[in-house]
């Protein structure tokens, strides 16, 4: 019993370190020299291809077991992960296969270390969650940064149109900026060769699965056909800003409720377990 309690506390401590290290790790702005050094230290494309090739035997069973909703969610995370500068050329099935391989490795390691299927299953579950955390954290940060900068970008497009240029030309001029929406629009313009720009924007917005982008693509189509385009864009920018502020306030209100379960798991339960162990262990020792 004592060993089971120690192992349980160890798993909880490992989960706390994993969540803290992957979820709340700070990010720092790097200079050009640091970026060049990091780029030179990245593995070559052959190494990344070799990793994906090694996972091919697991792809078929993972494809059978993966639900469409999980594949769609993974595709959205990969989309924003690539926007954040990582996970290039990875497909949703390949990433789910990587998670499955990490879970199997953690399960096997748990069997060797603990020798108990229940603890090994807990280790496999941690491997499944932990392998997705780097991508999910990068995608979440990129998506929130994009949402924060999108209203200002739309307002910039409206200001360009107020100078007397067309909607498409205003979009092309605004894409020269340094913001994340500008970088996204530059990518869309490159992919729109031979197609309409608004059609490509709507297609990319659907692939991103971001509600603000989908709404922007649809409303840009209506704005292009109507009048008072600059005024409508300004109103759209104000609406997006208000929606983002509302979502931020809602997330802030939910933080207290979301922290209850981690506090119970990582603080209250270990404290009560240690307290009961100190009190009850001498009594159990005396009875035995």
Quick rundown:
By secondary structure, this protein is an all-alpha fold.
Describe this structure in words.
The chain is an all-alpha fold and 288 residues long. Helix content is 84%, strand content 0%. It has helices spanning 2-23, 32-41, 45-54, 56-65, 68-83, 92-114, 117-162, 167-174, 180-191, 197-208, 211-225, 229-258, 260-287. It is elongated, with a radius of gyration of 25 Å.
Keyword list:
mainly alpha, 84% helix, 288 residues, 0% strand, 13 helices
Major β-sheet profile: none
> Which radius of gyration do the C-alpha atoms yield?
25 Å
Give me the count of strands: 0
Amino-to-carboxy terminus distance = 13 Å
Mean pLDDT: 76
Helical percent range? over 70%
Low-confidence runs of at least 5 consecutive residues: 18-47
User: What are the secondary-structure elements, in order, as H or E?
Assistant: HHHHHHHHHHHHH
- Shape designation: elongated
In quaternary terms, these chains amount to single chain
Number of helices: 13
Derived from helix and strand composition plus strand pairing, the structural class reads: mainly alpha
